[in-house]
Amino acid sequence: MPNLEHPAYPAADLLHLESLVPCRESQVSTLLSIFGERQQFSFPSIFIYGHTSSGKTYVMQTLLTTLQLPHVFVNCVEYFTSRLLLEEILIQLQSCSSGTEQTSPVRCDTLNDFVRLFKQALAGQELQDQTLYIVLDRAEQLREMEANILPAFLRLQELTDRNVTVVLLSEIVWELFRPNSGCFEPFTMYFPDYSIGHLQKILSQNHPPEYSADFYSAYINILLGVFYMVCRDLKELRHLAALNFAKYCEPVVRGEANERDTRKLWKNIEPHLKKAMQTVYLREISSSQWERLQHDGEEPGQLKGLSAHTHVELPYYSKFLLIAAYLASYNPVRTDKRFFLKHHGKIRKTNFMKKHEKTSNHLLGPKPFPLDRLLAILYSIVDNRVAPTANIFSQITSLVTLQLLSMVGQNDQLDGPRYKCTVSLDFIRAIAR
């Protein structure tokens, strides 16, 4: 018996929709109840939230497309200003009304212009007789726009006096959206994370035609047994399943085992899944590089410059701050004039230890340094002039938060804070490149 039932839509369409959205039947059923029939006024605004890869965007796109409901779908990351967002909605709306792709530009500078043009675009009889759905994906970006944009979308049905429903998709809760001045409260709906049983069912649907469904389901069960505790992201798990399946099939291809020899297949795939654990989410090597590593039996860290421990994205000046901190931690204070001044004068050789008496500073570990020394080295290694603004000091705090620097002592010291650089030489070399 099908889980999705609604008198306004054909049973064949609902059955097809149910096959496209596995493990999300209850959410789709709730949405269909809210939507009602095509000509009925639906709830003015719906707020759908949940973690990444919980099916929010996919379910909404599939639902609206399968049932052929008139809709506009906009990603707020791509259209990151209010003007771009409003104009894109109008362009898609004209295409929806005329049935052809609209290429002519639409000028919309204010919200009043948008309401006026929106009414004109809905003048078509086919759009007046049924609900129009405006879906705003990554809706958290609306908080960065003008203060009147979010409240206007929440009550767009009232402003335009048209049969329109706005659906907001986000990864954060509604309490972080609500303006201080108050606004119309949308209908909120939560998409929970997929359970391990749901992931097993969804991933098992992608089995290759040359292998049986039971064989691929056993492989997915092994994969989830390894990765489920560290990764619940459906997209990442699907990528890992496609990437490692060829290695799982090797004993079968060579004739050393059949599809039911689960123990032998597990012995073959176990070390490669442990290697893949090092690159979950990071995408530090491409799929072709990973396949080549599997074929050659090498370790992922043997690819130069691709280890997760030597690669990190930092702001421009944070990289120079980290380099300056490393130089301050591992170089004695007496060498600063020699290394960072152009006209440092003559250096008496008697002040330095003999070559055979020197001890590597890397073996002794990082030494603490004051803030003014860090800034002095920063100014000498950056090509352009850097003003000691609040931005620079906030980036130092961020490096401490990221545990790339560590603060020595207490914040209330009279002579200023002292720091240590906690990263390795390989890390700094990767940053310096």
What can you tell me about this protein's structure?
The chain is of the alpha/beta class. It has three domains: 11-190, Rossmann fold, CATH 3.40.50.300; 196-308, no CATH class; 316-341 and 363-432, Arc Repressor Mutant, subunit A (Orthogonal Bundle). The chain is built from 19 helices and eight strands. The protein has a five-stranded parallel sheet with strand order 2-3-4-1-5, with helices on both faces. The chain has a three-stranded antiparallel sheet with strand order 6-8-7. It starts with 10 loop residues before the first helix and ends with a helix. Residues 21-167 form the Orc1-like AAA ATPase domain.
Q: How far apart are the termini?
A: 61 Å
**SSE order, one letter for each helix or strand:** HHEHEHHHEHHEEHHHHHHHHEHHEEH
**Whole-angstrom Rg:** 30 Å
Largest pleated sheet: 5 strands, parallel
Tally of individual domains: 3
Order of strands across the biggest sheet?
A: 2-3-4-1-5
CATH class of the largest domain: Alpha Beta
CATH-derived topology of the largest domain: Rossmann fold
Number of strands: 8
Count of alpha/pi helices: 19
Secondary-structure-derived class: alpha/beta
Question: What's the architecture of the largest domain, going by CATH?
Answer: 3-Layer(aba) Sandwich
What is the molecular shape? flat
Pfam families: AAA_16, ORC5_C, ORC5_lid
Protein name: Origin recognition complex subunit 5
Subcellular location: Nucleus
Main location: nucleus
